[in-house]
User: What shape does this take?
Amino acid sequence: MGYALFIGCNIPVHLNQYESSARAVLGKFDLDLEDIPAFNCCGYPMRNIDHEAFVLSSARNLALAAKKDLNIMSLCKCCYGSLKKAHYLLKENSSFREDINRTLNREGLKFEGDIEVKHFLSVLYHEVGLEVIAEKIEHSFKHLKIATHYGCHALRPSNIVQFDDPVAPIIFDRLVEVTGALSIDWPAKLDCCGAPLLGINNELSMDLTEKKLRSGKQSGADYLCSACTYCQIQFDHVQKMIQSIRDTDHQLPSLLYSQLLGLSIGVKRELLGLEMNQLSLDRIDDFFTVREDMAEA
Assistant: This one.
């Protein structure tokens, strides 16, 4: 079964480099990807306002993918968490599922729960595999220290998302390390990025972001690395905003994992969109080393 690539709402508006870099990276591996133009919002913004509207939004996406016999691959961890939660709730509650399906039936759609929802990182780790990725590495990073940010919606609620161990996750760290970079241990690794509070309590949102930046910087990180739309916006766009209004000394640029891996496997830079990040990634070239067997060739 192939994958329907779920882009979500924010990537086309705020983070085009995530889509272009992810597509370029996935194109290096033998994955069957398909776009479904009819996909709508995952429902995440509605989940604490109108529960049924939230589930219906996700259920429609699930039904659209199922109609094409495709699993869903999400780039955003908030979208991933929303789709996984809706899938779980509908499988567990038959009367709720019937109510949702009555609405979906107006479009000839039906949720039956016979497809899977996976995140971009999960597909790379479990479906592609570290060995296959390692074979594609052209430029290995040397002495590059990365603070991986897992994101809340990939880890919790753990019985629903089933991404990794919620207390001691390793998937993201291993994917970073296959590029030659060192995934460091840092105290705030599993803390919230602050994005859910942006627009509600901006001061607290920025406080949470600053706490993470300070923790990563003090632990020796050269860069943060994320694989979630909201988290990257917080660490890139909002960090730049913090720098303009607060006196801070812990700037820590963030790059997407698709950009980090793309650099290692020789993806064209224009597809990675490094210049679209708000904070400069110019120093990253200093950590490059050509793989020995390729250097000899």
User: Anything to note?
Assistant: The chain has a mean pLDDT of 95. DSSP finds 15 helices and ten strands in the chain.
